[in-house]
Amino acid sequence: MAANNSSFKFSLFSHLVLNVLILLLATSTKTANSYAFSIKEATIEGIQLAFRQNQLASRQLVQFYIGEIRRLNPVLNAVIEDMIGTKDKQNTTAGSFALLGSVVARDAGVVMKLRKAGAIIMGKASLSEWADFRSLQAPNGFSARGGQGKNPYVLSADPCGSSSGPAISVAANLVAVSLGTETDGSILCPSSSNSVVGIKPTVGLTSLAGVIPVSPRQDTIGDICLSLFISDAKVSSSNGSSISVDYNDPATKAASYYIPYGGYKQFLKLYGLKGKRLGIVRNPFFNFDKGSALTQAFNYHLQTLRQQGAVLVDYLEIANIDVILNATASGEATALVAEFKLALNAYVKELVASPVRSLAEVIAFNEKFSDFEKIEEFGQDIFLAAQATNGIGNTEKAALLNLAKLSRDGFEKAMTVNKLDALVTPRSDIAPVLAIGGFPGINVPAGYDTEGVPFGINFGGLRGTEPKLIEIAYGFEQATMIRKPPSFQP
Question: Where does the signal sequence lie (predicted)?
């Protein structure tokens, strides 16, 4: 659940997932020379340059990451096997023992494209179990198989979720870049909390084929990386290795309309903020305590945006924002539990082999093995609510219509009436606004609180506006360069 406090967490209700850890985009068989190239904190652009200059070899890179995983994973619990299907020896379990030993029919669509592009799939990341969709009581980053994921900056701090492991892994230099999935905040929130860049694409822009689902209507796969230098995010952005039509996911055909000719790397412009119209919604997103680290940071950041040539349209409002941020009131919770049951049942039925073949069987498994799954401690209330649904009936249809209306009268209207290129908000608190409309967002490191816990800044836009968001986010990142390596404080 992508949240910064418990009340916000409960109101969001859902949030997705995580996953495949990607070593690099292009492999190399060169032998490294004696030049001391530093892999730690290196971007993919830097890694590929080191390949070309014969300063680094693929084997050396793999050995480094394996060593770091062995050294740090016992503390961080970030790497295991989970959500995105791989047709190899790795399990795809959503962090649950219920799917341990299940066999997928084929690589997920994004994995096929990554392998074709030369990526090495090192492993899969941990997550909030079942994409934080089993229980409202379970903590962010916890799964029965993976244990409790830890924030590498302050180990006792919330790593957020549900794509906790991908963000932790990248932040701690266990891997160069990772993929995560998001239903509502699950890329943006852990990226904010672990001081990495998270890109949540327009729904449909990346294929969901072969991915354990929550809601095909809201789910999307995006990148988590150290820097927006989209060579870091290019696994799914600039070379199209993840973004393209996948005939196993019909939604990608419609969304392919948004893919720009030549890919996304062309939008990495140093002065990408110049002339951009950025909206600021103070209430409720900027309601910080006066004098707090967040207040000071974002006052400075807004000034930086102006200095870089952006036009700030301040004190805007999103209609019915309180309703949108409350998953029960908006109808998001009603829609998601029904969609989850349908989507999960379809997913498990297509598996070549599986211990469970329906949500009902997952619930029964959890009850039977309650000690392993910590059912008595955290329960499975969301599962039970989903199982009680019976398809998309009148109640669910009404909820879906309300979500569409809230998006149209709220975020979409605020963007179009004010002719905005993006909406700027702190942390990832705007995630539900973007989620219910299938809108994209990019989260960039923005600072650290007095305890050393990271927080990000989010740039959200209308469907298909990734090129503008990349220009804006990259311009901000290059003007501030805030990210620093993790300190592993207790």
Answer: 1-31
Beta bridge partners of 125: 79
Least confident of 167-171, 229-233, 358-362: 229-233
Structure tokens at 292: 């707090």
CA–CA separation, 448 and 386 (whole Å): 38
Catalytic residue from among 126, 128, 162, 191: 162
Residues written for the chain = 490
- Residue 22: predicted pLDDT: 64
Share of the chain above pLDDT 90, in %: 75
3-class SS at 442? strand
In the set 186, 193, 407, 428, the catalytic residue is: 186
* 305-325 pLDDT, tens digit each: 999 999 999 999 999 999 999
Q: Is residue 58 part of a domain?
A: yes
Pair of tokens at residue 482: 């805030």
Structural tokens at position 224: 């988590």
Tokens of 290: 């006066």
Assess if residue 117 is contained within a domain. Answer: yes
Give the angle 85-90-94 at the CA atoms, nearest 5°.
Answer: 55
Structure tokens at 300: 């400075």
Q: What would the DSSP string read from start to end of 202-243? A: PTTSS--TTB--S-TTT-EEEEEES-S-TTTTTTTTTS-SSS
Tens digit of pLDDT for each residue in 92-101? Answer: 999 999 999 9
Owning domain of residue 352: 6-480
From the list 30, 87, 265, 405, the catalytic residue is: 87
Asked if residues 230 and 199 have their Cβ atoms less than 8 Å apart, the reply is: no
Distance CA 209, CA 204 (A): 11
162 part of the active site:
yes
Task: For residue 19, give the nearest of 153, 111, 134 by alpha carbon.
Answer: 111
Whether residue 172 is contained in a domain is answered as yes
How many distinct structural domains can be found in the chain?
1
The two three-digit tokens of residue 473, written as one number: 């986010």
Q: Is 1 among the domain residues?
A: no
> Looking at the predicted structure, is the pLDDT value of residue 483 above 90?
yes
Active site residue 87: yes
113: annotated active-site residue: no
Instruction: Give the pair of three-digit tokens for residue 104.
Output: 């997928």
Residue 197: closest CA among 172, 173, 232, 159? 232
